[in-house]
Every structure is written in C-alpha cells, then in structure tokens.
Design brief:
The protein has 2 domains: 197 residues, Spore Coat Polysaccharide Biosynthesis Protein SpsA, Chain A (Alpha-Beta Complex), CATH 3.90.550.10; 85 residues, no CATH class. The strands form 3 sheets. Strands 1, 2, 3, 4, 5, 6, 8, 12 and 13 form a 9-stranded mixed β-sheet that branches. The chain has a 3-stranded antiparallel β-sheet with strand order 9-10-11. By secondary structure, it is α/β, with parallel strands linked by helices. The chain is built from 11 helices and 14 strands. The N and C termini lie far apart (55 Å).
C-alpha cells in the first residue's frame, strides 16, 4: 500500500509564512486541502465575506500548483473543528497530516516520517516535537509542559472517521470504535532523538500575536490562565528584546497559558524554504536600526 498523505491546512491571514509552509509539504503531498476563512469568533479579523484580509487568498490562487494537488475551500465557519471535519470529508489519502499556515518542515524530515509509516502500517498517530519561535528566528520558547512541546499532527485515515476535538486534534475511527491516540502511535521523544521537528513561526510578527491575543480574550481564557492578555501583549511581547529578556521573563510568562515558559537561543537550522523569508526579515530589521 502506497502512503498517500492528505495535508490539511486551516488558514486565516496566513501571510507571509504560508508560502514556506506550502512549499515544504508540496513534494510529499498526495493532496493539500486548504480550508480558508474565519471561524465565528474571529470574523472581526476577516473581510466581510469571512475571508483573509492580508493577501492570503490571492497568494493561494497564484501558488504554482503544477500537479493540481491543492483543493481550496472557502467559507464562514462556526468553529475550527467544523473546518477540520469539512477537510476530512473530501480527503482521499490514507493518512492525514494537519499543518498550520505558519509551521514549516524540512523535506528530509517528511520523507523519513513517510518511510516510518510505510514500514509500519500499524501506526495510527504521530505526535511531533514542536519548536516555537519567538519574536524573530534566533530565540525559541522553552516549556516543561507536554502540551506545549508536542503536537498531534498525523493520523491514519480509515473511513468513516471524524475529529472529535480541535484542541488537541483527536481522530475517531468508527471501524475500531476508538480514537487513534488509543492505537499504536509515535510520540515526540522518538522523533526528537533523530532530529525531526515541527518548526512553528506563530509568535514572530506583531499582527500574528495581536490577533491571537484578541481571540484568546474572546474565548474567555484570561480567567483560567489567570493573566491579563492585553497587559501581556504590550508589556511582554512588544517590549521583549534579547537585551532585556531576563527582566521581562522574571515578570511575565512567555506563553500566556504556561507559567514556567521562558525563551532560549535557537541553535539549530531552519527549513530551507524559510531562508528567503528570514533574509527579508533581517533586511527590514537593519533598516529600522
């Protein structure tokens, strides 16, 4: 049985990282299903029709899809779980891989994962170790909490099946009457040992973090997290620099949800499709000095 990987991407305002995200998965993909638009609680960040307002739609439509792998679905959505299941309805691969528009992979890492799945068809889920970049490309978020350094990404697709939750993504297989996380799976520690990671660029730009912060406030997460998100955004994220990191981090958690989160210097290498983006980012930094 050939490994046919259906990549599923949910996106709203995915520029500029969606370009690197798509390029990094395109070669390995059997198909790429992009579900675009705002969920109900994020309509304020979209155009009046619910679509991205930062050029994401125009970019996707102009992306050089030479092998016709991309299936592009737009709409207004009630919630992200609905978007995941909408993609699953039209997926035809025997595996699905969830990918955010601001996470990028190394092509060799994807190839190794595909080989692992080909050699062991008994694997039903893979949870990847994740690297969260912070305010640029030289620092990452360090967390001791499992949900913050591991992400559920790859699932064996055996219809009929559906996602039961979005956080964390959980796939239910009716054939076995169980979720894939109750079947054989590979966790982050196995992949960390061979140097495979999900590179997540979700806390780089002010516009990204401002949208996330506003959405978290709407979700009502300030109370359970015991944090003032507006204060965190302006006095932690905006003011943080490598020079004052010790002072800022003594007062604020880097991830609002994780009280022990800090930053540390990134000592690895970025996926190759991030090179142009990083180069442009550094040029803008120099102009602003």
């Amino acid at each position: 049985m050939k490994i046919k990987m259906s990549f599923i991407m949910i996106v709203l305002n995915g520029m500029p990282f969606i370009e690197a995200a798509l390029k990094s998965i395109y070669k390995a993909a059997y198909e790429i299903i992009i579900i675009e638009g705002a969920e109900e609680q994020c309509w304020w960040a979209a155009n009046s029709d619910g679509s991205s307002n930062d050029g994401t739609v125009e970019f996707i439509k102009s992306f050089p899809d030479l092998k016709k792998k991309i299936k592009f679905i737009q709409g207004k959505w009630d919630y992200k779980l609905q978007m995941q299941n909408e993609a699953l309805k039209i997926a035809t691969g025997n595996y699905v891989w969830l990918v955010d528009s601001d996470e990028v992979y190394k092509e060799l890492d994807i190839k190794i994962i595909m080989q692992i799945l080909w050699e062991d068809r008994g694997i039903y889920q893979i949870n990847l170790p994740i690297i969260h970049f912070w305010k640029g490309f030289d620092y990452i978020i360090s967390s001791e909490e499992k949900p913050r350094n591991e992400i559920c990404r790859i699932f064996r697709r055996i219809p009929p099946c559906y996602f039961t939750t979005h956080r964390p993504p959980t796939l239910f297989l009716e054939k076995f009457n169980k979720e894939t996380n109750k079947c054989k799976k590979i966790g982050r520690k196995t992949l960390e040992k061979i140097g495979i990671f999900c590179y997540h660029y979700s806390h780089i730009l002010q516009k990204q973090v401002k949208q996330k912060t506003a959405l978290y406030k709407i979700y009502g997460w300030e109370l359970p997290w015991r944090i003032d998100l507006e204060d965190w955004f302006w006095n932690c994220f905006i003011k943080w620099t490598p020079g004052n990191k010790e002072t800022i981090e003594s007062q604020y958690r880097i991830l609002p949800v994780d009280r022990k989160s800090k930053t540390k210097q990134f000592l690895g290498t970025h996926p190759k499709f991030m090179e142009d983006i990083i180069r442009d980012f550094r040029k803008k930094e120099l102009k602003n000095v």
